[in-house]
């Protein structure tokens, strides 16, 4: 009986570790960290990396962030009273427009204080996600590519297709302008500027350039992001809003 009890105890100890490994493999992260004492502030880290995968499954060789994984996590974070703040780390090339906007909308409607940190790159639809946080940061060497919406696959050359593209473009522009300090004319000019990208239109912003344009709040790194979250969670009303 003693040997059986010891074996069951060992199995119970191994199971959480296996679940954590599975979580890392499937979602790229482990469960939310718990505060060691009442004074500590537990912050959850959500990484959005590679290509944002939407309704179409991308090839296995692609590094992707699946929106059907991200959205339930955001709901769980919002419902968990032990999580006082959310740090969103972005290093993405962009991806599905509607999936990216869905993540951005979820972030913006959360009461949990949120801070975004662009590392490496926050390109294309990554821009709305970055500005959706209560406060946004970009590392000194990170880049953000602002460009018009593109469609892949078969495109039917009829007026309705172009009207749909214009409406989707306006959705992205409206969201970015509403949740950052960049002016609409400036953003549109960056999107349709020629000569900055090879065989393309658009603008590449590096670190401080994104801040000067009004797209991102501040140049900083992990320590700055955590410091901002600490400030936001100490506010009586909570919920960020730092500019």
What does the model show?
The protein has 243 residues and is of the alpha/beta class. It has one domain (42-233): 2-enoyl-CoA Hydratase, Chain A, domain 1 (Alpha-Beta Complex). Helices cover 42% and strands 20% of the residues. It has 8 helices and 8 strands. The strands form 2 sheets. The chain has a 6-stranded parallel beta sheet, with helices on both faces. The chain has a two-stranded antiparallel sheet with strand order 6-7. Helix 2 runs parallel beside helix 3 (97-108) and helix 3 runs parallel beside helix 4. The N and C termini lie far apart (63 Å). Mean pLDDT is 78; it is low at 32-38 and 237-243.
- Count the beta strands: 8
Fraction of helical residues: 40-55%
Query: What's the CATH H-level homologous superfamily?
Result: 2-enoyl-CoA Hydratase, Chain A, domain 1
Number of domains: 1
Identify low-pLDDT runs: 32-38, 237-243
Fill in the keyword field for this structure.
243 residues, alpha/beta, 2-enoyl-CoA Hydratase, Chain A, domain 1, six-stranded parallel sheet, disordered C terminus
Secondary structure layout plus pairing:
Layout (H helix, E strand, L loop, with lengths): L1 H26 L15 E11 L10 E3 H13 L5 E11 L1 H12 L5 E9 L3 H7 L2 E4 L4 E4 L12 H20 L5 H8 L11 E4 L1 H5 L5 E2 L2 H12 L10
Parallel strand pairs: 1-2, 1-3, 3-4, 4-5, 5-8
Antiparallel strand pairs: 6-7
Helix pairs in contact: 2-3, 3-4
